[in-house]
Every structure is written in structure tokens, then in C-alpha cells.
Q: What sequence folds into this?
């Protein structure tokens, strides 16, 4: 379902999703053309979680995220050019090239840090919530992580303190193991947790826990809105599991455009759906789902959709150009900022 | 009560008395300066140690924490060598290098204890893996307190033990306090065994001062582990009647609370059970007497034992040197 | 002698030892599928899932589990995907693995190997690039080996797996696909011995890991300038082969140490200290140190290049050593 929002806002959300999708497609394309930016992880397929969830944050809120963070930053309004430049290691990037894809910090957007240590941001986000509570900012701390993070014990240490001290933190777990190669315990690239439901990791602490379909933007929007309201009122943490499908191209080491670049016509023209990965295009791709929902509710026409897409693509092409044209950092910058 | 049971019960009682007498002596020696260090006594928790270890086989493995004198004695360690270790003597189990918090008595399967809260929980998983691979039906048991329930590796271990169906028993001695702080100030989780439930692990909470209840729960858990049924979490509700460490005045606890628990003293309670079953006063007295004599002998041995030589400090940094 | 890559040499060493010794078990994230770099590829198929265990992302507990299993007769090998993640297992490594033999008065042994991988390359950023092995020098009870070539990768791994102590075996990601001759059969390189890589007479460069190759290149280039450099592969960081290093310094009277880890507090500092204690009177110049910049590892390729010690830095340190003149007092 669509989030309960006026048409204008819905279209804004959609534009954000398109920027998120096209950004990473452009990034993959550029890296295939021989420009090396090092290893990176993509968010493709999880846009219907990140876009609505982060659209609900305000200026007092903070965000912590993981190695799979490009989508989150863009969802919060990050400049695609500065983000691309950071991924390329350029001086014009968000962190002057020192963070890279895994560690982008954008303080002005509330992104305090992105950590590549699995589960590493969970205590940090809990600490930010503690600060928000003590300083009475009425802000909330949004903590984004994957299902694998739940295997780290520090998650429990954090849940325990957040519940005990009633901290304003929303733990949003993007469980993208559905459809991952080998989703049974003990197999590749998926969480190995003996619990039957991820929710049961939070419930012993008395933390309200809810599971939503992560490709259902409306469901995510509703759950996060409720959680944020609770946190801001000082009623403590919430745990949300958003179940998403692993994009087939999200290979463990180097992402590949296995499903091609997204063709939005597939949302309304079944003939445009190729045989290979048909299931992805038909059911699992959240962006196509959202597109269909917009069409069905008559909030947008195919022409409007294609126009918004062209804008998103143009913005990202510009971002790539900006990043490519940006200067490298000066070597001596490696010595700067070691201490504040 | 048949004769075999009567003998077993009296032996359980005597073991509890041995631990009680041992810990009282340690306390006394510490007050006199004859034993030094950081000492955490298990007075009041004897029911958990004895009820657990006597439900295990001699070749099973046990892991402890900082409050583990009782576990070692219950598993069959020699009180004399144990006290010598606590007193830092060369005749101690670890040649005086381990001390009170790091007891190792491999002859009776006490693999290790630790000064790091929750630290031996992952080690016990490793032992359980070995038990499963060697196929002799052995199991591993790990003792830890309620404070360990808030450390990350505790949760990681529950997950892995359950995933891999390891033959391990998690024995949580919930004595209500992590150092000076009541459990309720450290977590909203009132029943620590619920954490095991998260990972679909069979779990039970028992009265830890009822030695027979503990023994029953461990017997069931051990049977499950030996037959390939995987881990069990046994939470034992108990209380330490001394401070967190010797010298801790324990001002954070109400006197009324302490005296309430004194009434639930596991040793006295078990004496009551035996009385009901018709065991005579003379027999209890004899059990206590024998235990105290054994401990007195241990004290004589330990205090007369030589100190390690100074060169010992450089020895055994690496194995095989 | 067959030619193998460093990665293949690690794998064949591990494989041969697993055939030889039933008590060797491999644990780690995705190891049954080869892991992200493919080092353990094929082992699960050959030795079964019970000896090649995929673990959850619970480094602290997995290392602790391996310690526990090693106490009772197994010889576990834990793969920690990046040395950066060893921080999550420091408690078990430092408080248990390193100390249990000693604390137990010799009752216990911890024959386990920790395979860790490191290297600042490919813009992986500060959580996937560090070289942290010097930390372990400060912990009595741990051994540390740093192979620099395929033959040593195999030989040192075999030694690590046969050692009765916990060994941190440090692999460099940048060496995985380097090739070299590897003796066939049971090739074992003893822990605690440095290797002479290139003989020289003016300056000794003692290097670790990837820096050994860089030092060789520097030496070749310096030869053209008329400076003869002896290159030692220090190879095992703990125990350190001070004897070989001092013997070389007796000949050259000058020493430069090089490693990819941050220079401050690195293994080079320990070597410099030990050498001056042992052989102060024969040194003709202060011991030179080459290591990474004292900064977290930056992501940008330009900054990363600046961070990692270079051939030029080694050459500069060697030249400084050669031309150093004792100031008049």
C-alpha cells in the first residue's frame, strides 16, 4: 500500500526512490567502465524501506547506518554528487575522501556515522539516544542495520540498556536475507540465528517489536511513524523488522546489474518483463511495486513516471560527472584530522 | 528412602558442608591476612554447585567464573590443593599462578574459571563441540551469574549452542546482584531463562537453594544433551550470604533481605528434608564433622606448603618451552 | 617445486594438515563456502561440514569457542575475515587464549590458530585495512607470524597448526595472488626464525609481510646507487629472531625496519629497542623506521597511497642511515 500522504508528498517520496535506484545503477555502470572505486555494497531492492523510513526524520533526529548506506543517505536528502565523490575518494566528497563508501558521515543530515563493523552502530545509536534524552532534544535516534548484525552480542547489550533507560531509539532491521543465496542457517550470506522470529530477540526486553514487508512503503511508513512518535514522547525503543528480498545483482563481493537497469515500463507493461529474473520484476522489486501502486491509485500517469525517472537519471549522471571532475585530495591530507 | 538414596543424600549433605566449611575458612584466613587476593565466596549457593555437579558424570567438563571455589569442590577437586592455590602456593592446582578466580583442576574436569564476567561461556561451547566430536557421551556445563546475562557473548553463545545443538548446560546462578547492583537495575528482563527461549532452547527456572530441584533439572538437561537433544538453560534462583568479595560490607542490601535468605539457607533446608525422611541428628552431625575435619586438614596442608620459586614467574608462558 | 599463489599455498598447507591431523577444525564466517577470498574453498567438500564450520557473525564467541575446544584436544583454526574485526574477540584472545597455559600452571594448552587478513588497498576504508598485529606482541602467550611469500605462507601455517600455543597468522590481502615456488610435501618453516632474502653489506633492512617485497625492490634500486642492502624477512614477530637480525647488523652496522602497520608503537619499535640493547656499540647510525602514517586508514586512493609505506620511504631511510654522521658533542 501507499503511505497515507498527499499526492505531492507521495511523488516526492517516489522521486527519492528513483534517485536511490538510479544512483547505484550509475555507480555500478561507472565501475564496470574501468573506473575503480574499491569494493562497495548496494541498497537496490530496499528503497521502499529506506525512503519512507528516513522521510519521517526531522532536524533533531540522528541516523546511524551500515556498510549498505548509499540509499539511506540519499533518502535523507544527501547530495548525489557529494556522495558519489566520496565513494570515488575525491576531495569534494562528504568526508573529503577519507571515509569512502563504507564510512560516509553527513552531520548536516543527522548521519553521525556509518560503520562497516557489523552491528557496530547499534551501541552508537543507543548512545545518541541517551544524549538526546539527557539533553532533552526531543529528537530520536534511528538505527539501521541488517539481519546479520543480530548475531553480534552487542545488540543485546544495546537493547537491554535502551529498554532499561527508556531511550528514544528506533532499531530498524532490514532483513534482506529473503531470496539471498542460501537462506538456511549455516549457509552463505544470510543470518544464522536459531530464533524462529527476529522479533523474539527484542521482546524479552519489553521492546515493542513489529515485522513489516519492506517492499511495502505504506507499511514501513506507518510502523516507523508510530515508533518515532513513541520514542519522541520518551516511551522508549522500538524494534522493526523490514523484510526485503535480496536483489539478485547484490553479489557478496562485486555487485552486477544482473536484472539490467530498471525499466519502469515493467510496472505496467507485462510484456516488457524479461523471462530471466521475472519473479524479481513482477513481485520483489519494491520500486516497481510502488510504481504500480501510484498508477493504480491514479496518483501518477506513466508519462509522469517516466518524466520523474528522466530527472532522477539526469541528476545522477550529473553526480557522476561531478565526482569524476572533482580534484583528488592532496596527499598530505592523509595526516590531517587525526586528532580534533 | 532406600539405603542407596540415604547414602547419596548424606554424601550430598557432606559435600555442601565441605564447601560451607571451606569458604568459612577462606574468609577466616583472609581476615587474618593468611590468604590474600580478591576472594568471592559461594556461601549460600552450595545447593547449585552440588546439585549440578552431582548430576554430572566424572568425565563431564565444568567451567566457572570468579565465584567458583564451590564448583570445583562439588566436581571433586581436592580442597587441600584448591586452598593451596588460593593461598598462592606451589602445591596449588595451578602452581600458585591462577589463584582464586582462575581455578583449573583437569583431573576432575574443571577446565577453567575466569575473572571476566561471562568469559567462560564461549569456552564451554568449544568443550561441548569436542564432547560431541569424540562421541563418548560427555557434556560441558558452565556456571555464571545473573550479571553475565547482560554481556554480548552470552547471547552469541546461546545462539550458537542452539544452532549447532551442542551438548552444553548453561547454569545461571541468579543470586540477584551483579556486584553491588540488583538485577532489576541492570535489566528489565526478570527471568533470565527467557533469553534461551529466544533461541528455542529448553529452559527452566528452579529454586537454587533446593538442591534436589537443581539436581533434577540438571539430570534432565544432561540426559537431553547426551542423547543429542542439544543445550538446556537452567536458571537457579539463589543468594550469596556474604558480600560480593571478602571485605565488601554489603551496605547495598537490606538486613531484612539477608536474614530472609538466611532462613532459606540451602544447607539447613536440606538437613530439614533429611530429617523428614528419618535421618538422625547423629548422622547430620557426622557429615558436618567429617567435612570440617577435611577442611582443617586442607588448611594445614595449604599453609605449610612451600611458595613457588621466583623463577616460576617466567615459566609456562608458552607451552612446550 | 611447484609454483603457487600465496592464497593457494595457504589453502594447500591447511588442507595437508587437515589430512594429517584429524583434530584440525576450521571455523569462521562462510568458511564452508570458501570465505570471501576463497582461501578455504573445497575444504568443506573434502572434510565435511562438521570440520569446516560456518559461524554466525559473533567473533568474540567464536574465538572463545575455539579456545575452549583447543583446551580439550582440538586444533581449531578460526578465520577472522579482516584483522580489523579481531577487536571484537580481544577479550577471549587476550584474557583466555594467551593466559590459560600459564594461569593453569601448565595444565592447559591452547593450540589454536587465528588466521587474519589485512592490508591497506582498494579503498576499503578504515575498518577493512588496518595492520594491527603489533598489539599481540604486548601480550605474553601469543605467537605472531607474518608470511611474506607463498612458501612461507605454507610452511609457517603448518608450524602454526602444529604449535602448542595460540598463533596469530597474519595474511596480507595484497599478496594473495602473488606467485612463488613452494616446496612440495611436508614443508615446514619453523616459528622464530628470520630469513635472509638478499645479502648485502651496507645496511640491513628487516621487513615484515608485504614490505619484504617492497624492501627488495628498494634494495635493487639502491644497488645502482652503490649501496648494498641486506634484506631480512623478519617473518615471525613473536618470538622475534633477534639473533639473526643482530648477526646481520654486526656485518652492516646499520638497520632499517619496515612494516605496513602504523610506525608508532609498531613491531619496528620493539626491534629497534632490542637491537640497541644488544648491539648499541656496533651501530653506525640510529635504527631507521618505516611504517604507515599515524592516522586511521583513509579511503580515497590518493590518501591511501600516501598512508602506506613506499619503496621510496625505505630508500630514503637507507640513504639516511648510510650518510649519517655522528654529530660532534
A:
Amino acid at each position: 500500500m501507499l503511505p497515507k500522504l498527499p499526492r505531492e508528498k507521495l511523488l516526492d517520496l517516489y522521486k527519492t526512490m528513483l534517485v536511490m535506484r538510479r544512483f547505484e545503477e550509475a555507480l555500478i555502470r561507472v565501475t564496470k567502465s574501468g573506473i575503480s572505486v574499491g569494493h562497495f555494497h548496494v541498497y537496490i531492492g530496499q528503497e521502499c524501506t529506506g525512503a519512507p523510513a528516513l522521510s519521517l526524520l526531522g532536524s533533531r533526529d540522528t541516523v546511524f547506518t551500515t556498510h549498505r548506506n548509499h540509499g539511506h543517505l540519499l533518502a535523507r536528502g544527501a547530495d548525489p554528487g557529494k556522495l558519489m565523490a566520496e565513494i570515488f575518494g575525491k576531495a569534494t566528497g562528504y568526508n573529503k575522501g577519507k571515509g569512502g563508501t563504507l564510512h560516509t558521515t553527513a552531520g548536516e543530515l543527522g548521519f553521525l556515522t556509518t560503520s562497516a563493523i557489523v552491528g557496530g552502530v547499534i551501541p552508537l545509536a543507543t548512545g545518541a539516544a541517551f544524549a538526546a534524552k539527557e539533553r532533552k532534544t526531543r529528537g530520536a535516534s534511528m538505527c539501521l542495520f541488517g539481519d546479520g548484525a543480530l548475531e553480534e552480542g552487542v545488540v543485546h547489550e544495546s537493547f537491554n540498556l535502551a529498554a532499561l533507560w527508556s531511550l528514544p531509539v528506533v532499531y530498524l532491521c532490514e532483513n534482506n536475507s529473503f531470496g539471498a543465496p542460501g537462506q538456511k542457517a549455516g549457509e552463505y550470506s544470510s543470518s544464522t540465528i536459531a530464533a524462529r522470529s527476529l522479533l523474539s530477540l527484542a521482546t524479552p526486553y519489553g521492546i515493542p517489536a513489529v515485522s513489516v514487508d519492506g517492499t511495502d512503503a505504506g507499511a514501513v511508513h506507518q510502523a516507523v511513524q508510530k515508533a518515532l512518535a513513541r520514542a519522541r514522547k520518551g516511551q522508549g525503543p522500538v524494534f522493526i523488522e523490514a523484510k526485503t528480498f535480496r536483489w539478485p545483482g547484490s553479489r557478496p563481493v562485486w555487485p552486477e546489474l544482473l536484472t539490467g537497469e530498471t525499466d519502469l515500463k515493467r510496472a505496467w507493461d507485462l510484456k516488457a518483463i524479461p523471462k530471466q529474473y521475472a519473479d524479481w520484476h513482477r513481485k520483489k522489486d519494491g520500486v516497481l511495486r510502488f510504481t504500480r501502486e501510484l498508477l493504480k491509485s491514479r496518483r501518477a500517469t506513466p508519462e509522469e513516471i517516466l518524466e520523474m525517472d528522466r530527472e532522477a537519471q539526469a541528476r545522477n549522471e550529473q553526480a557522476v560527472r561531478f565526482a569524476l571532475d572533482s580534484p583528488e585530495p592532496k596527499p598530505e591530507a592523509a595526516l590531517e584530522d587525526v586528532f580534533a | 528412602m532406600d539405603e542407596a538414596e540415604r547414602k547419596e543424600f548424606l554424601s550430598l549433605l557432606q559435600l555442601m558442608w565441605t564447601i560451607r566449611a571451606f569458604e568459612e575458612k577462606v574468609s577466616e584466613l583472609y581476615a587474618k591476612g593468611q590468604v590474600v587476593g580478591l576472594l568471592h565466596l559461594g556461601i549460600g549457593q552450595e545447593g547449585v554447585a552440588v546439585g549440578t555437579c552431582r548430576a554430572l558424570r566424572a568425565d563431564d567438563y565444568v567451567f566457572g567464573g570468579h565465584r567458583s571455589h564451590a564448583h570445583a569442590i562439588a566436581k571433586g577437586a581436592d580442597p587441600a590443593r584448591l586452598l593451596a592455590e588460593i593461598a598462592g602456593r606451589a602445591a596449588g592446582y595451578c602452581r600458585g599462578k591462577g589463584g582464586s578466580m582462575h581455578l583449573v583442576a583437569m583431573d576432575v574436569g574443571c577446565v577453567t574459571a575466569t575473572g571476566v564476567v561471562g568469559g567462560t561461556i564461549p569456552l564451554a561451547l568449544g568443550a561441548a563441540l569436542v564432547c560431541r566430536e569424540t562421541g563418548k557421551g560427555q557434556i560441558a556445563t558452565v556456571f555464571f551469574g545473573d550479571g553475565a546475562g547482560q554481556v554480548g557473548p552470552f547471547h552469541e553463545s546461546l545462539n550458537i549452542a542452539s544452532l549447532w545443538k551442542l551438548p552444553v548446560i548453561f547454569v545461571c546462578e541468579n543470586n540477584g546482584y551483579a556486584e553491588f547492583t540488583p538485577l532489576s537495575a541492570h535489566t528489565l528482563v526478570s527471568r533470565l531463562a527467557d533469553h534461551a527461549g529466544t533461541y528455542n532452547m529448553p529452559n527452566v527456572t528452579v529454586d537454587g537453594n533446593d538442591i534436589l530441584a537443581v539436581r533434577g533439572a540438571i539430570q534432565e538437561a544432561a540426559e537431553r544433551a547426551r542423547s543429542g537433544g542439544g543445550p538446556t538453560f537452567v536458571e537457579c534462583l539463589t543468594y550469596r550470604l556474604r558480600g560480593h568479595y571478602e571485605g565488601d560490607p554489603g551496605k547495598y542490601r537490606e538486613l531484612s533481605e539477608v536474614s530472609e535468605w538466611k532462613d532459606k539457607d540451602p544447607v539447613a533446608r536440606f538437613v530439614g528434608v533429611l530429617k523428614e525422611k528419618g535421618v538422625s541428628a547423629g548422622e547430620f552431625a557426622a557429615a558436618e564433622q567429617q567435612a570440617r575435619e577435611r577442611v582443617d586438614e586442607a588448611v594445614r596442608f595449604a599453609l605449610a606448603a612451600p611458595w613457588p620459586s621466583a623463577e616460576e614467574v617466567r615459566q609456562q608462558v608458552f607451552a612446550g618451552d | 617445486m611447484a609454483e603457487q599463489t600465496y592464497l593457494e599455498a595457504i589453502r594447500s598447507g591447511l588442507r595437508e594438515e587437515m589430512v594429517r591431523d584429524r583434530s584440525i577444525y576450521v571455523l569462521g564466517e562462510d568458511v564452508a563456502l570458501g570465505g570471501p577470498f576463497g582461501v578455504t574453498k573445497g575444504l568443506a567438500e573434502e572434510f565435511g561440514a562438521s570440520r569446516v564450520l560456518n559461524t554466525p557473525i559473533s567473533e568474540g564467541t567464536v574465538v572463545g569457542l575455539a579456545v575452549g575446544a583447543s583446551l580439550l584436544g582440538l586444533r581449531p583454526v578460526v578465520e577472522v575475515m579482516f584483522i580489523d574485526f579481531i577487536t571484537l574477540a580481544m577479550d577471549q584472545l587476550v584474557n583466555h587464549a594467551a593466559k590459560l597455559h600459564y594461569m593453569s600452571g601448565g595444565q592447559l594448552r591452547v593450540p589454536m590458530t587465528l588466521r587474519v587478513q589485512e592490508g591497506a588497498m582498494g579503498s576499503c576504508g578504515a575498518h577493512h585495512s588496518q595492520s594491527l598485529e603489533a598489539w599481540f606482541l604486548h601480550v605474553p602467550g601469543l605467537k605472531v607470524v607474518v608470511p611474506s611469500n607463498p612458501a612461507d605462507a605454507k610452511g609457517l601455517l603448518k608450524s602454526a597448526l602444529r604449535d602448542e600455543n595460540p598463533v596469530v597468522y597474519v595474511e596480507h590481502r595484497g599478496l594473495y595472488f602473488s606467485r612463488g615456488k613452494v616446496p612440495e610435501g611436508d614443508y615446514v618453516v619453523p616459528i622464530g626464525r628470520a630469513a635472509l632474502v638478499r645479502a648485502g653489506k651496507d645496511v640491513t633492512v628487516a621487513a615484515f609481510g608485504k614490505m619484504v617485497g617492497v624492501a627488495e625492490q628498494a634494495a635493487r634500486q639502491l644497488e645502482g646507487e652503490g649501496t648494498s642492502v641486506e634484506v631480512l624477512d623478519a617473518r615471525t614477530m613473536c618470538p622475534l629472531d633477534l639473533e639473526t637480525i643482530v648477526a646481520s647488523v654486526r656485518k652492516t652496522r646499520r638497520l632499517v625496519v619496515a612494516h605496513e602497520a602504523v610506525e608508532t608503537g609498531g613491531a619496528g619499535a620493539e626491534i629497534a629497542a632490542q637491537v640497541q640493547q644488544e648491539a648499541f656499540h656496533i651501530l653506525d647510525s640510529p635504527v631507521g623506521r618505516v611504517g604507515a602514517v599515524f592516522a586511521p586508514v583513509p579511503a580515497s586512493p590518493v590518501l591511501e597511497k600516501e598512508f602506506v609505506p613506499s619503496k621510496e620511504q625505505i630508500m630514503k631511510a637507507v640513504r639516511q642511515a648510510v650518510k649519517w654522521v655522528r654529530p660532534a658533542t
